[in-house]
Amino acid sequence: MKTQAWFGIACGTAAAAVVVGAISLAVSRPAAATQQYATATGKSCGDCHTNPQGGGALTAFGEKFKANGNKLPK
Asked: Could you tell me the residue ranges of all domains in the chain?
């Protein structure tokens, strides 16, 4: 192949990578488990998380809450 063809392929691949990267940044969102869950359930953040302020590793109760579709386990 000619040098120009390889250059075109390389530029196209780089452009595609930039577009995919930009889309992934625009589409991805951080986890939305906020104070809203604590307010809705009447539980503190520390009931589901090992950190009393929330975030990070889940307690056994938090794992059950997550497995139950973010609803209080029965």
From this structure: 1-30, 34-74
pLDDT digits (tens, 9 = 90+) for 5-29: 788 787 888 888 888 777 776 775 5
Query: In terms of pTM, does the model score above 0.90?
Result: no
The per-residue DSSP string of 23-46 comes to HHHHH-------HHHHHHHT--HH
Q: What is the largest CA-CA distance in the chain?
A: 68
Assess contact for 35 and 42: CB atoms under 8 A.
no
Query: Per the structure block, which two tokens stand in for 27?
Result: 């589409």
